[in-house]
């Protein structure tokens, strides 16, 4: 009755732009680390802590924000999370002390972890015909963020301006952090102008607010002031969990999810999130280091015969530290270019999936993505040059990133409104646990036994693909769970 039109395209644009802002916030650290290493006098361990700080914050926040989304609302959660992300990123940009910078990045991660609510917010405005197509378009926005970020970094970070007094030092990388934080704040204010999810309002028994929301959507789509034909809704109200204490309600919501008829799906989706995200972050964060080691081998090695990737990695020699040598915070232009190439390589898959999603389904493309990324991960063992490394990195990024995005889509499709926010957030939490585990594994085995992370990454992706097969099909009006519709 509300129709389909301007409003739905606008909310796709708004949620997609939020996803771009999340991409900026999460991946900008890869440019901050080399640019700020001299100002903070960072050692390798300091860089590792900075790289993991945001991930730890996301791990802490992902479990909490799901409960907030299911009790206070999707719109409320997105506004608070994006404002928190933007504020602490701006605060980090003027931080002069490493420990304060780390703390700000951790709280930024805590805030941005609630951004997964945007999938629930988007899907709850869509009917069955457009739901899967719109959800799958979200990967294109993430890809756009991955492509835009190195462009922004390339424009700002090489600049040589320097603002300094006795209290503050402000350089190009500080400005880069501010620019990356602005989308989160701007989009938070744009969401304030939008209505709350109508399905969430129904679960809270707010029938009058639901009618007002539907009128708002109808008015946008019809581009007129015609009266909305529905004047009242008769529907049983769900239990309002917001009357409980926060931690009591959080505990009860978690227990309720894993004791409901959706408990098997909840467990399976959590395992998929864990396996897929472990594999993704294990290799994606390794690729720049791998590129650097191939560059060293091809430049300085006297060995003429090509050898396997693991042998090249194990031969890498770190020159001894030389005292009184000026710190180098220059980022080679090839770094920006390689990251852009990897981002551009994701465009074909991001375009193809939405075009055929209604015919083949979410499950088909998710399984295909995991199998494709598993093969590219395993093939890393056999590469012999930096060019092959860039090609395989691009293939892995294209398949694995869309696989993870489609996993979020499957999660919000399979769970009803009252469980959707919590299910997506707990899945995200397991994913971040996997990301931290992946970082630990790669650090332990990269030098002496690089076959281990390759084998683990490829195996986890295959496990994810088979687990997706066990889930019910999406894209139907009714989903049967344990004999109950």
From TrEMBL:
Residues 11-476 form the Major facilitator superfamily (MFS) profile domain. SUPFAM superfamilies: MFS general substrate transporter. Gene3D superfamilies: MFS general substrate transporter like domains. The keyword Aminoacyl-tRNA synthetase does not apply. It is found in: Membrane. Belongs to the major facilitator superfamily. This is Major facilitator superfamily (MFS) profile domain-containing protein.
